[in-house]
Each structure stands twice: as C-alpha cells, then as structure tokens.
Amino acid sequence: MKINKTFFTILTIASLSIVSCKQKQKEENAVKNTDAVESNIAGSKVLNSKDFDTVINNKTIKLYWLKNKDLELAITNYGGRFVGLWTPDKDGKMTDVVVGMGNIKDFVTSSEPYFGATIGRVGNRIAKGKFSIDGVEYSVPTNNGENALHGGYKGYQDVVWDAEQTNPYTLVLTYNSPDMEEGFPGNLNVKVTYTLTDANTVNMEYEATTDKPTVVNLTNHAFFNLNGEGSGTILNHKVQFNADAFTPVDEGLIPTGELRPVAGTPFDFTTPHTIGERIGVENEQLTFGAGYDHNYVLREQGGENMIHAATAIGDLSGIILEVYTQEPGLQFYCGNFMKSNNTFKGGSKDDYRTAFCLETQHYPDAPNQPEFPSIRLNPGETYHTVSEYRFSK
Hints:
Blueprint: H1 5-39, E1 54-56, E2 59-61, E3 63-67, E4 72-76, E5 81-88, E6 94-96, H2 104-109, E7 117-119, E8 125-126, E9 130-133, E10 136-139, E11 148-149, E12 162-167, E13 170-177, E14 188-197, E15 201-210, E16 214-215, E17 219-221, E18 238-241, E19 243-247, E20 260-261, E21 273-274, H3 284-289, E22 293-298, E23 307-313, E24 320-325, E25 329-333, E26 357-361, E27 376-377, E28 383-392
Antiparallel strand pairs: 1-2, 3-4, 4-5, 5-6, 7-17, 8-11, 9-10, 12-13, 13-14, 14-15, 15-28, 16-27, 18-21, 18-23, 19-20, 19-22, 22-25, 23-24, 24-28, 25-26
C-alpha cells in the first residue's frame, strides 16, 4: 500500500497541535485550580504566593499551602519555614497563630533568622562551637557569642529545600547536607514531612541518614501568638509543661549539666501559669536567659511513645495548643530578644515578647554532655522522630 507522505505529515502536525492545545489547556486549568484553592484560604488575604516566587542559589523558592477542614498552613521551602498557621478561635474565626513575613525578601534580610524555620543540623547551642566524635574534634561557626547556635551561620533555616506537595495537606521537604557543611561531618540526607491531620494537628516527621558518624538534632522554630499575629503580648497566655526538671545554664546559655527540679522556682509549670506571672522575679536563671529561654526535661521519655509535652492557651482567643513529641526535651523561649526590627505579614512589628516558641528537641550542648541523651547518628542508622502541634478551642 502506497502511503501519501504529505497527508501523513499534515495528520501528524494536526495531532501534535491537538496534544499541545490539550496540554496547554491542562496547565492553564491547573493554574486556575491553584488560584481557586488559594482564594478559599484565609491566609491568602494577607499572603500572595507570587511574593515568594524567586530563585536562590539556582533553586526555585515557592510558597506552599496545606489545608484541611480546620487548619491552613503556609510553608516556604526557603528554610522550610512556617509563614502562617490559621486555626479557628473560640468564636470560629480563622486566626493566624504563627508569626512570619509577608514575602521572601523580608525572610532573607530579617534580623531574626529563625522565624518559623526547620532547624538543623543541630538545634540549640554547642559550647564554643566544638565537639568530638571518636577522638576527632570538629568546629562549628560560633554565631551566638562564643557558642554555636542552630547549626552555625548557614543552618537549615537558610537553605533551599527540595519540596513535593503530595496531597492538599502534606508537604515533603528533602535536603542533602554535604560533608563538613558548617563543620559537621558526614553527608546527611534529611527528610521532613509536614502533614495536617483530621485531628486538627500539624504532624512533623523528621528523618536522616549519614555516611559518617555525626550529630543530629532537628526541630521546628515556629513563633506562636495564640491570640493572633499582631495581637500584642504573649505574657497572659497560660502554659503547662509535663516536666519536673529543667537544664540550668551559664551566662552563655550553655547547660551546666545539672537536671534541676522546677519545684519552688519560677520554672515550675507543672500546673498552669501565665507566662508573665513570674518572669520578672529576681532569679539568676531568668537573668541569664533575659526571661525564659530554657530546656525542660520531659517526663515519661521513651522511644517511640508520644509524650504530651506542653499545653498553651491564648487568653483572648481561647485557642489551645498541645505539643506532643518523641523527643526528651522542650525549649521554652518567650521572645526575649524581639526588638521591633521586622515587619510581619499583617503589618505588625516583632515587638518584645509578642511570640513564644516550644521547640521539641534533645538537650542543648548534647555532644559535650555525656550524661545527656545522645544525638550521635552512625552510618546504617536512621534518625527518626515525630512531634505534633495539636489545636483545639
């Protein structure tokens, strides 16, 4: 059978044209659908996703929206940051309980580098930026006085994570941290999965593997105001911790190694107290931290069990935050170093003590404190830990 080549060519071009039109229509529909989803999100009234579209170190930055029935979470893959988190208050009004910037430029230039960030390779402080593994000493940049904080100058808050939104309520972030990045040994492959559950919960699952013995202590650094971003002081929030002891610190906020009972001290939150109730009393530890900036030793520590670590209640909103974790410690920080230098997405400033943090973690300076739970990770092992922020009213 003789084939008419001209006819075949015309037919092929026409077919390709149809496919191309269909693909273009599909892409346009996807954009429309994304815009429709964002238009139904409370946070889109103060956040424009396009203000996060940029490229840093040849990697694309975006703003991702996670949504289920009662929670909305905006995350950027620059630093794996929570930009905003909306949940209903006692009157059903969607309230943004996590402070953050309104665009990527303000995050990059912020004088507070940790707003909402995923923290690593080692959260919290390492004394003098030095630690040893198997007799080999390693040095991390000292970016907090004479000590290292949250992984050095370029911790994970300043890297661009690879991001995959697998469904409307889950975002998977991955990052390959090279050997000796910020002085830490081993190529570390990190995976963090943020998921909104039907139980009004932000589930945070951290995983990592290494090809050399190293140290790992990952956490999230969300700054909360349960009355809503821009609502003023957090000192009237009530908090309660499932902890009978804390780790006192020296003037550089490095733990002394002691596990000190909280009973009879301003650090006793075994029953509910407002944050501001005792923050101004004369106490050496409060002086060192300029307020609360301390690690609490959680009760009932143990492996895969989820510990009810903390409860916080917004005095105006009635929003309740419960923190659950598999970690042995919880860092309580109440905005002591906020100085009104940055503008949040809603137009308010980061004023003194207008946000607080509850960071699930291993204890500070763990590599230099043999009595503390270890944060060492060896080749062939998998670092795995889960924490949750649970909301109710």
